[in-house]
Amino acid sequence: MNDRTHFLLSCAILVLVISLALRPQLTELPPQISVQESNIPQEPSLNSIQQFLEIEEGLTMVSMEPALPDQPEIKKNRLHLNRDRREFIPMNVVPLQAKTNRKPATQTSAVSAQKPQITTPQARQISSRENRQLEQFDSNASSLIDQSQDSFSRGLLSLSDYQLALNIAYQSKIDVGEIRGAKGAKIGQLTAKQALLEQAVDQLKMLNQPAAHRWYGDLLHSRLMLAQNQYEIAAASDNQYQKGLALREINRLSEQYYSVRRQELQVGEADLNEYRRAARSIFVANLETNSFQRTQQNDLSNLADFTRQLEGIQKAVETLAERGAGLGRKDLVELSQAQLSFAQGNYYRQQKDDRRSRAMFEQSQQHAKAAWEVRMNTYYPNGTATLHELTSAWIMWRSADTELNKSDTSTSVKPDRDLTAGLDRMLNLTSQIEDRRGRMASDISLVNCLKDSELLTELKKKSE
Q: Which residues does the annotated region (Disordered) include (predicted)?
């Protein structure tokens, strides 16, 4: 054997020995790779099955965690939740009694998972008789809204009378909804009222004509009514930002409204009632501003300014009465004095002077009652007072009586009986009216809603 052959044989033997030596290591690697490959899909597989079962069975997890990338701690939590699968309680199944070996913390978490399914408590049960009454009240309020809107659109109802009708009608609807326990009743009704006020603003914009007296003042008044309603909606929804915006608009419009009415009064285009209403808008705007900014200490000076304005109006009415003018008629003098005494009663109440405050409210009540009586017994039978004028005098009488009864020492029930008797007399008058053309239907519905408001007050007291 030559050297070449010997070298090749040695190389072959060396290769064979090396291959035999390395063969056990290659056979051990595949099992390690297979173990790693089998561990990788295990957790995603368990999670996908768990999610599928949760969807199919309607299970609710105690802690809903979003899908995140696989991390060691997340894997551990997920595996722990998968092992405690018995802790998940279906939302439509009453949970069984907890086992003795279960931890109290687990019981608490399992019970808390059912909180989203708790329904709101049911409203107070209303009897069938009360339900029929509420339906009638709501129907009367709807009639007043429709009839007053029709009368206003035809020019038969002034803007201030239209505002009074809407306020009483929608307040009745709000009271009905609250007694029934309807959620969001106030916001819904105020939103419906907002649409009617927007229509009123649009209608008044169309009356911009040279012969339209007091047009601009009425337009400002309608915009002020719209801003006031927006403020009520914001207050009902507890939206402080919207309240601030609406209050800013109220302050701006009330100043413009008062300025225009004052100029109109000087040239004889506005009467004292319109001027008093404009002055009161300034007073109310300042009052709401102080309440919003929590500066109620300024209310006293605000009341003093408003009272001085009412004193000036009272002197003007008395001067007209002395000269025998129609604007100084006895009922107007009494109502003017009732307005002044009412403001003075609030002024003394703000000063914590209860004795003088009660005296002023009592005077206001007496003057308003006298105005209503002279209209009912003298002017209405003679045809010189309308049903709406009777109603407005009764409302002033009712307001003074309400403030008087707020005092602790006022225990007399006779004024309440007189008020009820007066309202019943107006109801008897409405039942005798056959011709309901023009604005008469709206005026009759207003009296009916006033009676409904009295009955609603009694129902609200029962529900409390």
A: 100-133
Q: Scan for tokens 């009222």, then name that residue.
A: 193
pLDDT at 111: 37
- Cα 398 to Cα 164: distance, rounded to the nearest angstrom: 15
CA dihedral 59, 65, 67, 70 (to 10 degrees): -120
444 CA to centre of own chain: 28
* DSSP at 326: G
90 bridge partner residues: 59
| Nearest partner of 85 among 143, 30, 46, judged by Cα | 46
- Look at residues 109, 104, 185 and name the one whose alpha carbon lies nearest to residue 141: 185
Q: What percent of the chain has pLDDT over 70?
A: 74
Q: How many CB atoms lie within 10 A of CB 317?
A: 24
Mapped onto helix, strand or coil, the DSSP state of residue 135 is: helix
Highest mean pLDDT among 174-188, 367-381, 407-421: 367-381
Can you state the angle between helices 387-405 and 330-350, rounded to 10 degrees? Answer: 20
Nearest residue to 379 (alpha-carbon basis) of 334, 445, 427: 334
Asked whether 179 and 459 are in contact (CB, 8 A), the reply is yes
- The pLDDT tens digits of the residues spanning 260-277 come to 999 999 888 888 999 999
3-state SS, residue 89: strand
Query: How many angstroms from the chain centroid is the CA of residue 103?
Result: 46
pLDDT exceeds 90 at position 382: yes
Helix (H), strand (E) at residue 59: strand 59-60
Q: Give me the mean pLDDT over the 146-156 stretch.
A: 95
Mean pLDDT lowest among 116-125, 128-137, 275-284: 116-125
| CA-based max dimension of the chain | 160
Domain parsing of the chain, residue ranges: 45-63+74-91
Is pLDDT of 251 > 80?
Answer: yes
Position of tokens 């107070």?
124
Distance of CA 15 to the CA centre of its chain: 95
pLDDT reading at 42 higher than 70:
no
60: helix, strand or coil: strand
Structure tokens belonging to residue 437: 């053309």
Task: Please state the φ and ψ torsions of residue 128, each to the nearest 5 degrees.
Answer: -65, -35
Given a contact cutoff of 8 angstroms between Cβ atoms, the answer to whether 275 and 267 are in contact is no
State the angle between helix axes of 354-374 and 387-405 in degrees (0 to 180), rounded to the nearest 10: 160
- Give me the helices (H) in 237-353, please: 240-267, 272-292, 299-322, 330-350
Q: What is the pLDDT of residues 24-41, one digit of tens each?
A: 444 443 344 333 443 433
From CA 346, how far away is CA 357, in angstroms rounded? 7
Which of 62-66, 105-109, 129-133, 148-152 is the most confident on average? 148-152
Q: Give the separation between CA 104 and CA 424, rounded to whole angstroms.
A: 66
